[in-house]
Specification:
By secondary structure, this protein is an alpha/beta fold. Helix content is 29%, strand content 17%. The chain has a domain at 19-61 and 63-131: UDP-N-acetylmuramoyl-L-alanine:D-glutamate ligase (3-Layer(aba) Sandwich), CATH 3.40.1190. The N and C termini lie far apart (54 Å).
């Protein structure tokens, strides 16, 4: 079986990913005047887990969805992709974060976007992220089953409990911070993580907290948008440990770049993390480079659609793989499936408590 194939045989277990962090409702205002408003499950953790489900993984978000209108929209969307919600409503439950994305066309024909935590109608503040509590994390940790990956993008005592439990079960712990936050907890997260990936836009001075941690990550990745990425890998005798760089692909179509970092993460994990830490232990440097390039190509493909995961709604997995293959090969011909995304058949209403009060 090739690395890019999804295991479908009943005697081949699907790789399992658990994750906790930002799982939100994305409200997406398209660039086109009069375009359809869309509501999708989003947030870094939500996107990575949904994308991996699309790629054939068994995904389990660990969250506090409380049954409010945004949480029901998130649940409906995640179920569409086969995401398992057995750990998505841990007590005490909380309001679901809501993020509004505005897409705008640029003068050069590309697109830009901005995010807001305010209701576009009344201006009220929308719910923010609240971490899984320590008690809920301990309960969830006892229910983990054969994880290949544990993903976290926000640090809390609960997320560290889950990361440690997953690592003990042989999972690759992937930490994708959006900022430092609590320095002590951040250092613990870095010490637990096998893979740390961050954006230069968010942490332009790198990761100063890497100095002095108990255990260095096996792989550190810094993404740099159009400039590509750089990475540092500890592969023992199989490769150099210094920083290396990979150029970005030239996107054939750019309608929105939101979520491309999530696609690069999911694509990377899809290639190198199926068998958990055992697969990372035996990884050759050429295989690592191939996995990183696959993730970059998936991110490039995503730019052709509006919304962080817009392409999933109009493109099947097979066409996705064909398109990514063409991007990897440097084929600049017209790419399959690069069309404006239509919103799912989900009404966008009731996401602001102030408007519905």
């Amino acid at each position: 079986m090739r690395m890019d194939e999804t295991p479908m045989s009943p005697d081949v277990a699907r790789p399992v990913v658990y994750g906790t962090g930002l799982i939100a409702l994305d409200i997406v205002f398209p660039a086109e005047v009069g375009g359809s408003l869309a509501a999708w499950a989003g947030g870094t953790c939500g996107n990575v887990l949904a994308i991996l489900a699309y790629l054939g993984w068994e995904s389990h978000p660990i969250a506090r969805l409380n049954g409010d209108a945004p949480s029901e929209l998130v649940r409906e969307d995640l179920r569409r992709w086969g995401v398992h919600l057995d750990l998505a409503d841990l007590s005490p439950t909380a309001s679901t974060p809501v993020i509004v994305q505005y897409i705008r066309k640029t003068a050069t024909g590309g697109a830009t976007h901005r995010f807001s935590w305010a209701c576009p109608d009344c201006g009220a503040s929308l719910p923010r992220y609240r971490a899984v509590t320590t008690g809920a994390a301990e309960e969830a940790a006892s229910r983990l089953r054969a994880p290949s990956v544990f993903f976290l993008d926000r640090v809390s005592r609960g997320s560290l409990i889950l990361a440690a439990a997953s690592a003990a079960l042989g999972a690759i712990v992937v930490f994708e911070p959006s900022g430092i936050g609590d320095p002590k907890l951040f250092r613990e997260a870095v010490s637990l993580a096998h893979v740390v990936k961050y954006s230069h836009d968010r942490l332009e001075n790198g990761l100063p907290e890497l100095d002095g941690v108990e255990r260095q990550p096996r792989l550190v990745i810094e993404t740099r948008g159009r400039e590509g990425l750089r990475y540092r890998a500890d592969l023992g005798s199989r490769g150099a440990r210094g920083w290396r760089e990979l150029e970005a692909f030239d996107a054939p179509v750019v309608r929105d770049s939101a979520g491309s970092g999530d696609w690069s993460t999911a694509g990377l994990l899809h290639h190198l993390a199926r068998t958990g830490i055992a697969g990372l232990d035996g990884l050759a440097h050429d295989d690592l480079t191939e996995a990183l390039r696959y993730g970059q190509a998936a991110a490039t493909w995503n730019c052709a659609f509006q919304g962080a995961r817009g392409g999933m709604y109009v493109t099947g997995h097979q066409i996705f793989e064909e398109t990514v293959g063409r991007i990897l090969a440097g084929d600049r011909a017209e790419v399959h499936g690069l069309v404006s995304v239509s919103a799912p058949n989900t009404p966008v209403q009731g996401f602001c408590a102030a408007c519905t009060a």
